[in-house]
Design brief:
With 174 residues, the chain is α/β, with parallel strands linked by helices. Helices cover 27% and strands 39% of the residues. Strands 1-8-7-4-2-3 form a six-stranded mixed β-sheet, with helices on one face. It has a two-stranded antiparallel sheet with strand order 5-6. It is globular, with a radius of gyration of 23 Å.
Length: 174
Amino acid sequence: MKILKLLIIAILFTSCGSIVHYDYEKSTNFKDYRTYNYFGDMKTGLSELDTKRLIRSMDEQLKTMGLSRTDNPDFYIDIQSQEVRQRTNSNFGIGVGGTGRRVGGGVSVGIPVGVNKQSREIVIEFVDERKTGMFWQAIAESSFKSNANPEQRDAHFQDLVEKVLAKYPPKVKP
């Protein structure tokens, strides 16, 4: 019983976090990239305020990694996102039935448990327009609350950016 409780708690904590997938061009020398900027015509799919929050979080994190934002960058960053609704498949069944001699019957009712979750998929791409094109990409999916206050939104984007940039630059195996 104790193990079951621990398992349920672990599932709750891991299911609320962000999931991040990475990809990169293997031939890229990431040491060549020290400056960046964002594409001017970027359509993030976020509100204007959330776009500012995300870019501010990106700038802060990239600065701690030794990268700087300039007008003549080594690479550009493109950000796109879309809302993803996940339908819950959890059901709770109630059944009533009886059997007798050659007589049988039953009734079952499925009651959905939980609510549909809202999550957002955010795609962040690093693009070198002069050499290789896109050389690094992260796709993050995380749940969000549309009624979150500004402080909660700031914290959400800071956490998301930390997870996204945790594997940049990738550890290239020799």
